[in-house]
Amino acid sequence: MPAPRPLDPAAVGDHIDRLYRAAWALCGTREDAEDLVQETYARVLAKPRLLTHDDDVGYLVQALRNTFRSQLRTASRRPRTEAFEQDAEPVDRRSATRPDEAVAAREVFDRIASLPEAFRDVLVAVDVAGLSYGETAALVGAKEATVTSRLYRARARVARDLAPGMDRGPAGVLERG
After folding, report:
1. Higher pLDDT, 116 or 169
2. pLDDT higher for 38 or 96?
3. Which of 23, 83, 29, 60 is nearest to 135 (CA)?
4. CA distance 34 to 64
5. Comparing C-alpha atoms, which of 107, 122, 106, 117 is closest to residue 155?
C-alpha cells in the first residue's frame, strides 16, 4: 500500500464539475447540488486530509456522499415546512441556448434522485462522476459484480421511467408496447 499523501487543496477545485453532476443526481435540484458541493468543499478543506490512494475524485465523491447523508439525517430531525411554489425557475446560463437539453437533463437527474439509495449511489459514482467499477465498489462497500448488477438495474429503471409505454422486447431492447 502506498504511503499516505496529503490532499492538495489547490487541486481540489479541478474536480468541481464532476462533483456538481454527482451532487445534482443525488439531490435532484441544481440549487441543492450547489449547496451540497459547497458544504463538501468546506468540510474537506477545513483540515488537512491524508489520502491512501491516488484517487482524489473517489475521495471527494465519498465525502460528497457522506455530507449528503449527514444532511438527510439532520433534515429528518427538523420540522417540515412547505415551500412556496414558483412558476419561474432561474435560468441556467450554460443551457440557455439549448432549452431542450436542459429539460432532458433535469428529467434524467430527477429520475436518478428518485432511485433507491443503493442504485442511486452506483449510478452517480459510475455514470455521473466517472468512477470505475472498482472505485465504485470500494466507495459503496460492495463487490464489483454487485456494482455491475446495481448499475444495470439503475440504468434500466431510469430508461423505463423516461420512456413510458415502451416494453422490453425479446432481445432486451426497448420497443413500443
Report:
1. 116
2. 38
3. 60
4. 11
5. 122
Of 36, 47, 40, 42, the closest CA to residue 7 belongs to 47
CA nearest neighbour of 18 among 7, 26, 10: 26
Beta carbons within 10 angstroms of residue 100's beta carbon: 8
Q: Grade residue 177 by pLDDT with cuts at 50, 70 and 90.
A: very low
The whole-angstrom separation of Cα 159 and Cα 155 is 6
What are 22's three cell numbers? 454527482
Instruction: Please choose, from the candidates 112, 172, 109, 121, the residue with its C-alpha nearest in 3D space to the C-alpha of residue 150.
Output: 121
Cell 455521473, located at residue: 128
Interior/surface letters 133-151, b for 16+ CB within 10 angstroms, e for the rest? bebbbbbbebeeebbbebb
How far apart are alpha carbons 55 and 81 in whole angstroms?
Answer: 39
pTM higher than 0.90: no
